[in-house]
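User: My advisor, Dr. K., asked me to get a structural model of this assembly before our group meeting. I'm new to this, so sorry if the format is off. These are the inputs:
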Amino acid sequence: MKTRSIASFLLGTALSLTAVGAACAQDKAVKIGALSDQSGLYADLGGPGSTLAAQMAVEDSGLAAKGWKIDIISGDHQNKPDIGTAIARQWFDVDKVDVIVDVPNSGVALAVNNVIKEKNGVYINSGAATSDLTNAQCSPNTVHWTYDTYMLAHTTGQALVKAGGDTWFFLTADYAFGAALERDTTAVVQANGGKVVGGVKHPLNTPDFSSFLLQAQSSKAKIIGLANAGGDTTNTIKQAAEFGITKGGQKLAALLLFLTDIKAIGLETAQGLNFTETFYWDMNDQTRAFSKRFAAKMKNGAPPTMVQAGVYAGLRHYFKALEALGGNPHDGVKVVEKMKSMPTEDDLFGKGEIQPNGRTIHNAYLFEVKKPSESKAPWDFYKLVGTVPGDQAFTPLSESKCALLKK
Amino acid sequence: MQALYAQLLVGLINGSFYALLSLGLAVIFGMLNIINFAHGALYMMGAFVAYFLLNNDYLSIGYWPALIIAPIVVGIFGMILERTMLQWLTGLDHLYGLLLTFGLALIIQGVFQNYFGSSGLPYAIPDQLKGGMNLGFMFLPIYRGWVVVFSLVVCLATWFLIEKTQLGAYLRAATENPTLVRAFGINVPRMITLTYGLGVGLAALAGVLSAPINQVRPLMGADLIIVVFAVVVIGGMGSIMGSIITGFALGVIEGLTKYFYPEASNTVVFVLMVLVLLVKPTGLTGRAA
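Assistant: The format is fine. Below is the predicted structure of the whole assembly, which you can bring to the meeting.
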């Protein structure tokens, strides 16, 4: 009897020792870097709100109670790729960051993508639009949440062409994002029998679009495609109204619009615009509950944009993967592989999955901006007009040029 | 050809903002010898004052009164800045004024950004100026036409005030030799404060004018001010008429660039600045320092 209990005691100690040994290789500490445009034209759709979303993801994960130590730092890339990569390098080398989230601005996002791959970190991008992140430039360390240019082109773009908008003129932001969005939308327009009759590339952060709008007007195209974002899009839409473009029969295709943009334009001017998002605060009880908690912590009381929601959902999934691994291995490829092996499910985006190329698949929603008379609350802006299932909205794997798929 | 006319007109509209802002800068530099980097922030404040006047819980003051009230409010704010800070820099190197006003601009923008975010607030075009007219070669929004006419009038009035009136003569004299002018019994420090208020008021006025066209947002001035400085440098620091003419002219040149080579539209002004500085370092109409 006695010998048996001693034996079992020894066995128990040995087992717990091996457990400790494993935990040493992978501890329970995580450092998150929220890299965003904190003060420029994309600050409201990502920025401080994304950092808040990351904090809420940490709190809601309940990992702190289970002995995890999770820290968040944030940085301002100022929409400059060189600054973005410098911050990312410092975060990995000095601050020992494990995962970088958000990163709006496709130019910066693609540059940071390379750094994260080199440092074997984890990249959960929610803010950038370029579909190249999971296509030609895909990386085993990257998960792209929320949206991309392919999705925008195949939802809003396709719907407009099918509704008879077969001639297009593009107003394109002159950097990686605009180019990708114009390219993906052009492909959709042409595949559906439409024609692109012209376009202008404008510098990022342009205050006055009247000159470009006049060129779009004289092109006589039925659809003026706005391959830009944030402050550029809101300025274009406001000024297009001023120059009577929509009254003249041409239609604006705001390929990428965020909640905060509608607020800036005002319902009076924005009403009737069709566009696509993957998250809206007023979708169901869960999104409303989350958004209420979120807005209470925002200085201007704004509910989350889809980018901020994506930061939250992406991190929640990341934590699930870490828990399943039993600790943080500090090995980006390993964690991302785990993330890809688990189906995604959260309150904000519902059920989905992460494809082998890093693309997260979830529903996309076609919205229309409400009339001022239909809006009942301060941020009550959208009317749901259609749902596109994730597998139809995002790049099919058969079309993806991602090198990870060729293994 | 029609498209070209339209671009010229659009350039003229943008030029009116450049002219109003660079005029204010030129007045301040000419009279106070201060390179006022806070100009963009004060322009932004003008737009925000107009927004607050319209959207508050007590009384809703529209566009027209805002055109007068906002410049006065911001002008007073500017005069407080001058009294409490800028006046101590008299006689020091330009660099000190530049650094102080640049710091002020960052602080003012930071405070607004903290409370209002970066994407801006909508401000509607006043009912009387809604709509537009078809000029044959383009559809001209009435509001934009109004901006050109109004800013031209304001620019010329300011030029007249400084170059052709008794008050302007005192001002110019005070810049040349403040001690002597003081000896004639004129309160030079007060005159300088008022001049700064005037320059700042012009910026705020431009802010109100631009509120319905652009969004009212904390960084609206930061994006514009660098271009406006280039305008002032091209026109000649401190030259009133020079900055008015250059403002309008550069708006037109920028408009043409947007038509012929849009990618370069935000650099063309600086290319011109470099060329002008190489050929005539004092600016097109500037006097030698």
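One thing worth pointing out at the meeting: Chain B touches chain A through 41 residues (CB under 8 Å).

User: Perfect, thanks a lot.
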